[in-house]
Amino acid sequence: MKVQLPVLANVYLKANNNRLTMSATNLEMSVSIGMGGKITEGGEITIPVRIINDIVNNLPLGQIQLESEKESLKIKTQDFESYVLGMNPSDFPIIPYNIGSNEIKLPSKDLLSAFNLVLFSVSNDETRPTLTGVLMIIKENELVLVATDGFRLSQKKLKLKGLKDEVKIIVPKNVLSEITRLVSKEEMLSFSYKKTDKQIVFGMPNIIVASRLIEGEFPDFERIIPKETKIKISLDREEFLRSVKLASVFAKDAANVIKLKVNKDNIEVSAESARSGSQKAKVEAKVVNEDNTKDFVIAYNCRFIEDLLNSMESDDLLMEFSDANAPGLFLNEKDQNFMHIIMPVRIQD
Fold first, then answer.
1. CATH topology for 6-91?
2. Taking 50 as the threshold, does the pLDDT of residue 1 lie above it?
3. What is the CATH number of domain 226-342?
4. Which of 206, 167, 172, 169 is nearest to 190 (CA)?
5. Model pTM score
6. Any one Gene Ontology biological process term (predicted)?
7. In 10 A of CB 80, how many CB atoms?
8. Segment 263-273, tens digit of pLDDT
């Protein structure tokens, strides 16, 4: 995002009550980080992010003394002293500094794991803005996360004590990615939503992240979820991932297409390129074929399957199909609250 106001290139520093708070925003998202310190006199200032970042990154570990005077900041250590020109703090936008009301709490490890299971399915197509974020459905006892790019869909459910009224909001991908970078798995993570402000606020120890929501209607994703399947396959996730990666060596020259052939007790993963060659690999599997369909072959973009398998932590994978042109269902046998769908690639017989 291009900086719209000069002050947005600055970080806002505020010192009071033996606490230093640093804040930055691009008007779409804001981050505030607090830390303890010995404050002899309170004050506030904004200074360029680039300059203070370069200075701090090159200073040795140790205590730093900060002192503001009008619109400049003095940065001092035992062997270093610098004066940085800043801007009037009153020009800095108003951003949230606390979680607010209707707070919902979850263990960070659960929410971070859920984010990782859906974020890779978010679209990068800016012409379809509602798909560039994660749909969060907040119910009385459940949080549902959904992401899709039109070719694949991820859904993860979490138990919680939520709101009385069901709420649907779309949170930008970059915000949730930033949360996964900032938060520790050992902490609790809180969030609150205020409809009138059209924003969501995440809170964790000493950190507040706020973001505008994406406006618009998220697609009716439930209509593409397969209602019934005829072929069910259980196999080792790591073995399958290894075979998919091997197939991708040749699939890269063939639009990333790999084929999965369902046999009686294994899956044959293959790829073929007119430029570089071909390969086949068999992965042992438990196969339930209700209609005894013979020579069932379905094709997928190998990158989509790799993204899914890399995001999962389970030992096994369950795949379910109805026919070669219908969405494939990918499940974790030990986690009934996760579901992934991938649209197949149409191939000629």
1. DNA Polymerase III; Chain A, domain 2 (3.10.150)
2. no
3. 3.10.150.10
4. 206
5. 0.91
6. DNA strand elongation involved in DNA replication
7. 13
8. 999 999 999 99
